[in-house]
Design goal:
Shape: globular
CATH class of the largest domain: Alpha Beta
Number of domains: 2
Number of strands: 26
Radius of gyration: 24 Å
CATH architecture of the largest domain: 3-Layer(aba) Sandwich
Strand content: 25-35%
Largest sheet: 12 strands, mixed
CATH superfamily of the largest domain: Alpha/Beta hydrolase fold, catalytic domain
Helix content: 10-25%
Number of helices: 13
Distance between the termini: 40 Å
Length: about 625
């Protein structure tokens, strides 16, 4: 079990990348010294600090900290816009670092950090995932795109020594603001790096996956950074005190999710309250997806994502995919590394949990990918040469480059769940009724980690999955020992034929690499809420005992199952408290009562006509060194 200190650190998963790495820190943001007392001598010596309130077109002013090199002129600006504080406040107060990586303070940039509208010392009203206004009829029609435009316009006109070129970056929530800033971009904005960007809070980022609510991470975030403070602007406070490290115990004793409002938030967390009012992909959520607005993007874009990022890997993939489809002329690339949320800017990237990668992957990314990207577009001629994708191959532990992601090479193959719980690349041929069956009981849900779990622990995806093997509500399909390497690249798409004695249910699918020593490495896992199987906007119930087809897409992988390993698939009906409990009754779960939660018998079928499977692209041996 994690120590209390480690558990508190995990509560900062949402904040660490955007806040600590963006130049701020939680202690300073709350007015204390704390981490701000760390060594700041380099920045004090080499940078002059200035604090300003930059006016937006509607008259609202945004707090902005500007750090200008004391001995350089004609240098570009690197801007980050954050809801996690531009602290430390005061022109004599300096952060520990600046920019999107540890070497950037020595590379010759003007660094700018801004509190977004309605947060900390900026004026105005904060709104989660601010809806984009594609048509602006007056100065009152503002969004994060217009705030970025107005900020950049002011900076290039009023900051001495700048060369007229601006780069924009951000991690996590900051990645959302970076993504929004490249829409209808200011002419001076030449390069943008959205890193783990939030893009759609209902389909795949942070708060929901395929309509299923991510309970522990959302609860922590809204408790810490989503509640009303004493002032007019919203700020982040202390981590929530659970009184236990046992997340299963805490959230089970909480009862139905409606009790969060009654017991804890009491209508003081506007974001949580809004979520509980919108249990389907309605206009509220659709307006908050930034993806439809990514058209005609003129700055160069380098999107960054982590294979083990349970928060916003979806967002990184979707920004890249959407630009390829909706803005094909944009000069863009993607980096996908072996990292949890924000790790590429936090440490050297040598490992996640027990998984070791054999090199300092974050250093390679910073030196060979991120730094040259900004240098080419902000200091050079804007014609930096680069591949379309840098992707780290797990299993073999090596960086690879591609002219397209997912790669063109390879063959789509399906991995079938079969009789006797075998896993095979051959489709089942039996016409008899074949299925695996288990009972999912909301009173005894399957956990997402072996112990603890009050938050979305950043390393949970790297933990040994054997803890589920002894549970009767987890079904495992195991393949034969591989006689040759199998490399898969791109999304993993489950197709499940299922039934239940209930009228709703969750199906969790985990693709696992079983090592010869028994270690079960989670390659990819995700959840599908059955009532959303045909539409996220118009849920429909299951008919008890009737077979339904569930198709969904899990985020991309690039993994080699080595010779001597086995491929393993686990299927289960709960993943608690990472995902909230499904009452297994068709209802608005956010309003469900304790009496609505019922055990249900669930099945996954494996016959010729109902062949449950996972489909992915397998690379030929000639493509794999």
């Amino acid at each position: 079990m994690a120590s209390p200190r480690r558990a508190r650190i995990r509560l900062l998963t949402w904040l660490a990348a955007a806040c600590v790495l963006g130049g701020a820190n939680p202690a300073a943001a709350q007015g204390g010294r704390g981490a701000a007392a760390a060594d700041t001598s380099y920045l004090r010596t080499h940078y002059a600090k200035r604090e300003v309130m930059i006016p937006m077109r509607d008259g609202v002013r945004l707090f902005t900290a500007i750090y200008t090199p004391r001995d350089s002129a004609n240098v570009p600006i690197l801007l980050t816009r954050t809801p996690y504080s531009a602290a430390p406040y005061g022109e004599g107060m300096y952060p520990r670092t600046l920019g999107p990586g540890p070497r950037f303070p020595a590379l010759g940039y003007i660094f700018v950090t801004q509190d977004v509208r309605g947060r900390y010392r900026s004026e105005g009203r904060f709104e989660h995932m601010t809806p984009q206004r594609p048509v602006k009829r007056s100065r009152r029609d503002v969004d994060e795109s217009s705030d970025a435009w107005d900020t950049i316009d002011w900076l290039v006109k009023n900051v001495p020594g700048n060369n007229g070129r601006v780069g924009l970056w951000g991690i996590s929530y900051g990645g959302f603001f970076a993504t929004a800033g490249m829409i209808d971009a200011h002419p001076a904005l030449k390069a943008v790096s959205p890193q783990a960007p939030q893009t759609d809070w209902f389909i795949g980022d942070d708060t929901h996956h395929n309509g299923a609510f991510l309970l522990n991470s959302t609860f922590n975030f809204m408790a810490m950074c989503g509640t009303r403070g004493a002032g007019t602007a919203m700020t982040c406070g202390k981590p929530f005190d659970f009184g236990t490290e046992d997340g299963v115990k805490f959230f089970l004793e909480l009862g139905p999710i409606a009790n969060v409002e009654k017991k804890y938030f009491k209508r003081q967390s506007p974001g949580w309250t809004d979520m509980m009012r919108h249990g389907t992909y309605d206009a509220f959520w659709q307006q908050r997806s930034i993806l439809p607005h990514l058209k005609g993007i003129t700055p160069a874009v380098l999107t960054v994502g982590g294979l083990y990022d349970a928060n916003n890997y979806f967002g990184a993939l979707k920004v890249y995919e959407t630009l390829e489809r909706q803005s094909p002329s944009t000069d863009q690339a993607i980096v996908i590394g072996p990292w949890y949320h924000g790790q590429w800017a936090r440490d050297r990237g040598e490992s996640v949990g027990d998984l070791q990668f054999g090199s300092t992957t974050s250093d390679t990314y910073q030196r060979e990918m991120l730094e040259p990207f900004f240098a080419a577009h902000l200091k050079g001629n804007g014609q930096g040469t680069h591949p379309k994708a840098w992707v780290f191959e797990t299993g073999r532990n090596q960086w690879r480059t591609f002219a397209q992601w997912p790669p063109r090479e390879g063959t789509e193959r399906s991995l079938y769940m079969g009789a006797s719980q075998r896993l095979t690349f051959s489709a089942p041929t039996t016409t008899d009724s074949g299925f695996a069956q288990w009972v999912t009981d909301p009173a005894r849900p399957a956990p997402f980690v072996a112990s603890g779990g009050t938050d979305m622990d950043p390393d949970y995806m790297a933990r040994d999955q054997r803890f589920g093997a002894t549970r009767p509500d987890v079904v495992a399909f195991r393949g034969d020992v591989l006689t040759e390497d199998v490399t898969i690249a791109g999304p993993v798409r489950p197709t499940l034929f299922v039934s239940s004695t209930g009228t709703d249910g969750d199906w969790v699918v985990k693709l696992i690499d079983e090592h010869p020593n028994g270690f079960q490495e989670l390659v990819r896992g995700d959840v599908m809420r059955a009532k959303f199987r045909e539409s996220f906007s118009r849920p429909i119930p299951l008919r008890p005992g009737q077979v339904a087809q569930l198709d969904f897409t899990m985020p991309d992988v690039f993994h080699t199952f080595r010779r001597g390993h086995r491929m393993l698939v686990q299927v289960q009906g709960s993943w608690f408290p990472l995902v909230d409990r499904n009452p297994q009754v068709f209802t608005d779960i956010y309003k469900a009562k304790a009496s609505d939660f019922r055990a249900a018998s669930q099945r996954v079928y494996h016959t010729a006509a109902q062949a449950s499977r996972l489909t992915f692209r397998v690379l030929p041996a000639a493509v794999v060194p």
